[in-house]
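Hi W.,

Here's what went into the run:
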Amino acid sequence: MTARIGVVTFPGSLDDRDTQRAIRLAGAEPVALWHKDKDLKQVDAVVLPGGFSYGDYLRAGAISRFSPVMDTVIEQAKAGLPVLGICNGFQVLTEAHLLPGAMLGNDHLHFICRDQKLRVENAETAWTGDYRQGQEIHIPLKNMDGRYVADPYTLDKLEAEGRVVFRYLDFNPNGSLNDIAGVTNEAGNVVGLMPHPEHAVEPLIGTGRTDGLPFFTSILKKLVNA
Amino acid sequence: MSRTPLDTVEHAAATPDVELPWAELGLKKDEYERVVEILGRRPTGAELAMYSVMWSEHCSYKSSKVHLRQFGEKAPESDALLVGIGENAGVVDVGQGYAVTFKVESHNHPSYVEPYQGAATGVGGIVRDIIAMGARPVAVVDPLRFGAADHPDTKRVLPGVVAGIGGYGNCLGLPNIGGEVVFDACYQGNPLVNAGAIGVMRHEDIHLAKASGAGNQVILYGARTGGDGIGGASILASETFDDAKPSKRPAVQVGDPFQEKLLIECTLEAFREKLVVGIQDLGAAGLSCATSELASNGSGGMRVTLDDVPLRDSTLSPEEILMSESQERMCAVVEPDKVERFLEICAKWDVIATVIGEVTDGDRLEIFWHGEKIVDVDPRTVAHDGPVYERPYARPDWQDALQADDANKLPRPATAQELKDQILKLVASPNQASKKWITQQYDHFVQGNTVLAQPEDSGMIRVDEETGLGVAIATDGNGRYAKLDPYTGAQLALAEAYRNVATTGAKPLAVSDCLNFGSPEDPAVMWQFAEAVRGLADGCRQLGTPVTGGNVSLYNQTGEAAIHPTPVVAVLGVIDDVARRTPVAFQEEGQLLYLLGDTREEFGGSAWSQVIHDHLGGMPPAVDLERERLLAEILISASRDGMIDSAHDLSDGGLIQAVVESALLGDKGARLIVPDGLDAFTFLLSESAGRALVAVPRSEEVRFNDMCSARGLPVTRIGVVDGDTVEVQGEFTLPLADLRAAHENTIPSLLA
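Here's what came out:
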């Protein structure tokens, strides 16, 4: 058997089709979900893809968070449904309070697109099981509002509980506190990160690396073995 | 509010003596008289608005048309061309049932006035042209030119333009894969912001801008219509019809990329369900253009009820509605029984869609306002029968003196140390320096099909995931060469873009161009234009790559000073399998470096003459298009048969620039030997055309040499990939770290 992984399309989502491709390449079945539809079509996991949903108007992720589909995503995530938020999806997850913290504009005030080096700080979440703890990987990063911030108490708690999943290495591309690139919730089923693993799944395309593929194989293994 | 009576067709016929502000709207007296003659009466205000904007230089190509005809007359036979000049964009067959549409346009003047929005709406406009052909946009490219890099105003214009291109393109989800950034004092006050886009579709999905079939409905969808981008119409509205109304609005439009993203998705969904008979985007001249072009290209007429146009500002006059250049709008012609489904799809994407008219049996375009007819014209007279000028042109007096001022006679470096210093200065000069600070503000990765992006020689996009079919695009132009000799300069731009496509392993198929020049009223500029068009048309015929469309931008000058004539040429190519693409970066130490082509003493217009001597004179490099074709064939064969692992075109900055770029990108150095018969200076810095640098694995050396000699292409072994320096034996050694610092720090230190 394989797993069915849903990808939500919000108005302004950009990487929804790319994420579906990555899921397919990992051997799982991608399922398109529509933001106006509360029905998750009985998927085993959900990805909120990157993009500029609602044009990032008001604040990145602030409007999408109120889409009908998010009611179900929030409810089921709290019940253990694996959810991955990439870039704009991460922003939606923080707006929905499924993940702590918030994203501000990059400290240099420019959009930045680069091949970013990361360290895997937690290889035990639903989405990172195929990485090794401490593994260094390269994943493309591209965003305008990628500066992760949280209050000191939350940061300490995240660090103490091992909930920082990825950290920027060599270069902090946006001024994120503690070089944080991605975090998880207490249960480890919800993960959000700014870099784009779905753009690092084929040797010829993009940066030519496949360091992003383990995201999708991790979840597949977890679901199939469950 | 006091409003004078509506200027209906009936009213116009009854009041022949009413004076209209035709001069303020940019019409010449004889042009206005021609409108009166066509209509057999004075135009209404709304009709005058339409004629004035559609007969403007920008929309009618009235100064350039007589020259542009050569692109059709001299077009080479090409099986690949599916749709040629005259539609929103040309369409090329790339095999396996796929068609590709591409085009380059200018948004120069708005980008100087308001850099962010000017550049952003430039991207928006070209992308809508691509959608209007039925294609999904898959990539954008941006050839840009600014004033001197250290001029204070460049720091205002460039960051705004770059942020605008990024802000719009990134939000649309289009990878930015190529383009150029060039600095020259001649563009001070007149930056060139050209924007290109590529779209992909199946052959059967090609759509055209025409309205046929009486009873078919005309649907306006996308953003509401507002008062932005109205130039002349405001004069008409405020001075003639309603003195009380304040109507000074910004002449530069404001873009909303989120709205455009929705427009893309809902249009493609409507295409998939075969709901669309004809389609046109609303760009320059807004509804005036869309309605007159759709109607004139179809078999019938059209009736439009202007009251039904959704407005952002309810006080707009009918003339303003017709001329508004509000962004993110499209116009579709849909059969009556499919209207409901079309509107459903728009609603799904939260896009406002409104039936504003229908196709009629007759041959008139009739537009109504409050139940009264305010436009009654033959749409062809608006869209196609604009004035055509045979503007006088003459080779300028100064051209001989410019060409006689030979750059080959400039003082050259006397010692190896001086040569080394000049090279370090060159790779750090703004035009030769890394543009990473700019290009990293653009998304290269979105859509997950980007095989190559800048700083590669051409951008490359995978079209089919199963077969690996891909397309490549390169844009090039060198205003300095074109100033020295416009005919040759245009051919050099074509040759370089053609070569850049071939260097990556793709076969060049077709051309689009953006011709940026000064005022056509200056005979010297008109001569430059005529020569450049002749050069480009001749070159395209010889290379077998037809011009499929493009754009002309005139009046690029401040006062009397025109920009360098700057024809920017885009070449589109196809590659059977993107796995065979050839990158710029050196891949492996020990690979052999070969120089393909002939190196002559050619320094006219060169980067060296500019950076070291601040000089522009002499003749540009000679063009040999047959050689370019042979070089391209060799590069494509070598890529297909796995004989080369990296390749880089040689252009401005010469061989050393190419070696430094390949070394820095691959993080591997090179040892070079000056070949017999050449001095180190000419070897490293000449800008002879028709050349490329390739890295050949040792196992392929014999096979590669045999292929070149069998086909008669001069090939010279010049060194090896090695170490962490660029060493020219007997001359100098430059550590990669020093080169990287010189090459990568310039732009951030000037602009960040």
